[in-house]
Specification:
globular, Pyridox_Oxase_N, 7-stranded antiparallel β-sheet, 2 domains, Pnp Oxidase, Chain A, Split_barrel_FMN-bd, alpha+beta
């Protein structure tokens, strides 16, 4: 067990002025690059992206980040101020959706495999069941039951440093998933307990893969 770390109060950052003393002034271009709408470059990025992280907060301030993925271009651009994100079948915790009902502010981070740059979009969101909009996001004859409408307030490209430091797309950095327990075993260990019989565990893992196959869309 890791020993508990005590944070020394004299080293804690207390306010924004204190924070900014530790950094050089913001580069002028980092401020100017922020746009209030989707331009041709942002459109191209979104249309290529198969993956976005959605950051939300509850009314009480509890934060959440949820990954969403589909074929490239799955986030639809309705106009230069509006995006449409399908809500696919999941575990029905509804963390993102319930947060947006009480606090509509939302942050998006788009990734493209092989690109070290990312696209950030901030705005506010609504939930819709409009059949005409939902039909735009049909995949394998499956239409989502709900969609997130994002009203864009801020758009900017984010530099490549984080992904380059992490070497996220470097094939030499790929790790063997077999080095750690399966998702099903981890969940069972954290809840009701995983079976000790390897054959029983294998059946559970196969069952999860079968559920993925049947319910992805």
């Amino acid at each position: 067990m890791t020993a508990k770390t005590s944070l020394r109060p004299e080293f804690l950052v207390s306010d924004e002025q204190d924070l900014r003393r530790s950094f050089a002034a913001t580069h002028d271009i980092a401020i100017k690059k922020c746009m209030a709408q989707i331009d041709v470059h942002a459109r191209s990025f979104i249309e290529r992206s198969p993956f976005v992280c959605i950051g939300t907060q509850s009314q009480a301030g509890s934060a959440d980040v949820s990954p969403r993925g589909d074929p490239r271009g799955f986030v639809k651009i309705l106009d230069d101020k509006t995006l449409l994100i399908p809500d696919r079948l999941g575990n029905n915790r509804l963390d993102t959706l319930t947060n947006l009902l009480t606090n509509p502010k939302v942050g998006l981070l788009f990734l493209i495999p092989g690109f070290d740059d990312t696209m950030r979009i901030n705005g506010h969101a609504q939930l819709t069941r409009d059949p005409d909009l939902l039909s735009l996001m049909t995949v394998k004859d499956r239409i989502p039951g709900l969609a997130i409408v994002v009203h864009v307030e801020e758009v900017f490209i984010h530099c490549a440093k984080a992904l380059r430091r992490s070497k996220l797309w470097d094939p030499d950095q790929l790790q063997d998933r077999g080095d750690v327990p399966s998702l099903m075993k981890i969940i069972l260990d954290q809840t009701s307990g995983a079976p000790s019989d390897p054959d029983a565990q294998k059946k559970l893992d196969e069952g999860l893969e079968e559920e993925y196959r049947k319910t992805m869309y």
